[in-house]
Design goal:
The complex is a heterodimer of chains A (61) and B (315). In chain A, 79% of the residues lie in helices and 0% in strands. Chain A is mostly helical. Chain A has one domain. In chain A, helix 1 (2-8) packs across helix 2 and helix 2 (12-31) runs antiparallel to helix 3 (36-56). The mean pLDDT of chain A is 88. Chain B is globular and about 80 Å long. The mean pLDDT of chain B is 90. Classes of the chains: A mainly alpha (61), B mainly alpha (315).
Chain lengths: 61, 315
């Protein structure tokens, strides 16, 4: 619940957490050996996560 | 300015220049000092990055500089991300990355833990262990190629001695199943000393008084290891993982020398694949898009890693 309210109030913690999850997910999708479709979508996911991380690191605590 | 050196420097400064500097504010002087670094950073890092992103959106080929360059949008990215061969290269890189980091951290930490104990010949052993990382990757690749030779290679004979198998019955760099492990072994052999040195720095930074306090509290060695040693060495370990992770993601020379990316494409890491696209097939636009994908991946990973590292340090 506090995670969602943090997101709505543009707090750094939850947004950085979301960006971190996206980056990690993108990297796993890029290197996994199971499905080509996951590999195809890995870069957009990582890119969104990375850009989000850069932006949200300037949000207030 | 009581320092005689400062007096000499002030006296040696030409009067015109001294007058100009005296007229500058502290902020301006700070900018004068920082500007060359910023300029270098822009010229060496930022400009090539922007240029690469621009090229990645075109069909430019370096071997045909006179051809008209066509803007293709995200077509290069689409091709890379639907290419099964690129996917295999990334899987080979993941295998290499995960196993080298795991082995180097475990063995490196164990060696550091041993070297940290005082014993006779400690310095000699440290020097001997550190030797591999001082060698050139080209040299290491070359002599491990000889060690892996099925007919005369020492490695095959050692394995044969322990397993009873025929030494010439397997080829570490010639078999699809063994080649990915061959490059993992060589990289681990070469770079474990680096991880060991970082861990050693971490171990030596722990004040003995903490262990003495733990002894007074009758904490067992096992408990001291998990509640003092590991938490205090963790930032150093994470730093070692970061360095080795970034370095191994772009591993090129050692693997090219050992296997050349073969057999087939089993050891074709992303950097080798990228080099082939850029300088053998001359698809510069495509290779630039490939480089941008790798850059974003490493940048994203490094960002979250540095954040985690800072959290561990603050604890």
């Amino acid at each position: 619940m506090s995670f969602l309210s943090g997101l709505l109030r543009l707090r750094r913690g939850p947004w950085e957490m979301l960006a971190t999850i996206l980056i990690a997910l993108g990297v796993v999708m890029l290197m996994q050996p199971f499905a080509l479709v996951l590999f195809t979508w890995s870069f957009p996911v990582t890119l969104v996560g990375t850009v989000m991380f850069i932006i949200t690191s300037h949000f207030p605590e | 300015m009581s320092d005689p050196m400062a007096h000499r420097i002030a006296a040696a400064t030409p009067p015109a220049l001294a007058h100009r500097i005296r007229g500058l504010s502290d902020r301006a002087i700070a900018w004068v000092f920082v500007a060359p670094t910023i300029f270098l950073l822009l010229a060496v890092n930022i400009f090539p990055l922007i240029w690469t992103i621009r090229l990645s959106l075109t069909d430019f080929r370096t071997n045909r500089p006179n051809n008209p360059v066509k803007f293709v949008g995200i077509e290069n990215y689409r091709k890379i991300l639907t290419d099964a061969d690129t996917w295999l290269s990334l899987q080979a890189t993941a295998h290499f990355l995960i196993w080298t980091i795991v082995l180097q951290v475990v063995i490196g930490f164990a060696l550091a833990y041993l070297i940290n104990k005082k014993f006779r010949g400690n310095d000699l052993w440290t020097t001997l262990i550190v030797l591999p990382m001082m060698l050139s990757p080209a040299v290491v690749g070359n002599f491990w190629t000889f060690l892996y030779q099925p007919q005369i290679g020492l490695f095959n004979y050692v394995i044969a001695f322990f397993t009873g198998a025929d030494p010439s019955s397997f080829s570490m760099i010639g078999e699809v199943g063994l080649a990915p492990w061959a490059i993992v072994i060589v990289d681990t052999w070469m770079w474990t000393p680096f991880v060991m040195l970082i861990c050693l720095a971490g171990l030596r930074s722990i004040p003995p008084s903490i262990y003495e306090a733990a002894e007074c509290d009758r904490a067992s060695k096992w408990r001291q290891f998990w509640t003092i040693t590991i938490p205090m060495v963790l930032p150093f370990l994470m730093l070692a993982v970061l360095f080795r992770g970034i370095e191994n993601f772009k591993m090129f020379d050692l693997v090219v020398q050992l296997t050349g990316g073969g057999p087939g494409a089993t050891t074709q890491l992303v950097s080798i694949d990228l080099k082939r696209e850029a300088f053998e097939k001359w698809r510069t636009g495509y290779a630039s898009a490939y480089a941008v994908i790798l850059f974003v991946t490493v940048f994203g990973l490094a960002s979250i890693y540095v954040k985690a590292l800072n959290k561990v340090k603050d604890r």
